[in-house]
Amino acid sequence: MGASRVAMAAVAALLVSTAPALAAGKDAKVWAAAEKARAGQLDLLEQVVNIDSGTGDIEGGRKVTALLVPRLKALGMTIETVPAEIPGLPENTVATLTGSGKARILMIGHIDTVFGPGTVAKWSYSVEGDHARGPGVADEKGGVVEGLYALQILRDLRFTNFERITFLLDTSEERGSPGTRALIDRLVRAHDVELNLEPGDAPDVITVWRKGSMTLNIDVKGRAAHAGVAPQDGRNAAVELIHQLAAVESFPRSGDGLTVNLTTIQAGTRHNIIPEAARGQINIRARQKADLDRVEAAVKESAKSTVVPDTTVTVSRENAFPPLANNPATDALAARAQAIYAGLGLKLATGGNGGASQSALAYEAGTPALDGLGPVGGGFHSEKEFMDLRSVTPRLYLLTKLIMDLSANPPKK
Ligand SMILES: [Zn+2]
Predict the structure, then answer these.
(1) How much distance in Å is there from the Cα of 249 to the middle of ligand 1?
(2) Ligand 1 centre distance from Cα of residue 88 (Å)
(3) I want to staple 205 with a disulfide (CB 3.0 to 4.6 A). Which of 222, 296, 351, 384 is the partner?
(4) pLDDT of residue 24
């Protein structure tokens, strides 16, 4: 960056501070702070990635929290430790920073990953070219660390023009936040805006819609019998389950709209016994709630009749997140984010994806929400997961500036 451009950016920064809605040009101070933060940011990221914290790993989750909480306290934040709402999960953390302004801003991140204990021993943090790799590196440890450093920059710049900034560290997002649901509901209602630190999508996309998700459990009860001696006495639950699965065959398995996928099957106990019980799980994603209901109705209708006599089929529904539908409040936030990014000479695209998040709960509560604000990543929920290192500093700048912009002009609920 040339010297003249630095000077212009500084002038622009002054203009921005008095007229944030314009958000024109680069804020040289914030950019410099984001660049300065980078080494520490990546060092902390490596530390948190190298702690296994799959959902339900209480010890691992507590270790990650123990690494983050002292840093949040050092930023002047008040820490509330909130027990999970169901057993088997580590505590959630609510960190609050109080300022002198009027905006109430909520940042949500999650510290759980989809990777079980022992993953880090086989696959730890590494850097290859422009990609950082490791379990949860982008989903969502990169976002959590970004949130912490945005707060650090605000503190370093002595920015306090907000009533409060609340940072929730959720410990069960990858299972639909069953341990945090009431807490999220309370927090989204008590804030003017929700900023979600899920990873951005490649090449540089923020998230303005998300699919809702639900699981249908299909349980078949039959009758056990020796497969050689008296197979005629058995009622094969596995065979009945296979017939029941036909009910979802006609729904799409991929695409931007409704998707319906068989994800687990369990049946039988021994090779020579007719299975007494069988369970299949169907994972459903949709952009409209009505689509979720439609699939449930089809599966329940099918369950009313069986092909294998004397078997019974029950269907139960587990909701994870409702959809975050396209909406004007989110689009308005996205436009503000794009204006900030344009000040860097970068283009920020908007999009959506099938991964659910807490932003849908904000949307349901009528609180404007913007999602996908973490660093850009890909290969989520697989060993291909990566975080794009080129996005780290622009995304930290974006989040910090967005908080400053929203502080001056909080969206109207
Ligand atoms: Zn995530």
Answers:
(1) 29
(2) 19
(3) 351
(4) 67
Given a cut of 60, whether residue 14 has pLDDT beyond it is: no
Distance CA 361, CA 367 (A): 9
pLDDT in tens, 230-254: 999 999 999 999 999 999 999 999 9
For the chain, give every domain's residue range.
Answer: 3-210+323-408, 212-319
CA of 260 to the centre of ligand 1 (A): 21
Closest CA to 216 of 280, 305, 285: 280
CA 272 / ligand 1 centre spacing (Å) = 43
Distance 277 CA to ligand 1 centre (A): 34
Calculate how far, in angstroms, residue 354's C-alpha sits from the geometric centre of ligand 1. Answer: 12
Secondary structure class of 97 (helix, strand, coil):
strand
CA distance 235 to 219: 14
Domain 3-210+323-408: assigned CATH number: 3.40.630.10
Residue 313 exposure: Cα atoms within 13 Å on the Cβ side: 28
Neighbours of 383 (CB within 10 A): 12
Interval between CA 382 and ligand 1 midpoint (Å): 12
Instruction: List, as one string, the DSSP characters of 229-284.
Output: T-GGG-B-HHHHHHHHHGGGTTS-SSSSS-EEEEEEEEE-SSTTEE-SEEEEEEEE
**Residue 342 is encoded by which pair of tokens?**
């344009």
Distance 223 CA to ligand 1 centre (A): 41
Tell me how far the alpha carbon of residue 170 lies from the centroid of ligand 1, in angstroms.
Answer: 10
Of residues 12 and 109, which shows the higher confidence score? 109
Question: Residue 110 C-alpha to ligand 1 middle, in angstroms?
Answer: 7
Q: What confidence tens digit (pLDDT) does each residue in 275-328 have?
A: 999 999 999 999 988 999 999 999 999 999 999 999 999 999 988 888 999 999
C-beta separation of 316 from 322 below 8 A? no
CA of 295 to the centre of ligand 1 (A): 25
d(CA 290, CA 24): 41
CA 357 to centroid of ligand 1, rounded, Å: 7
What CATH class does 212-319 carry? alpha beta
- Least Cα distance to 172 among 187, 161, 182 occurs for 182
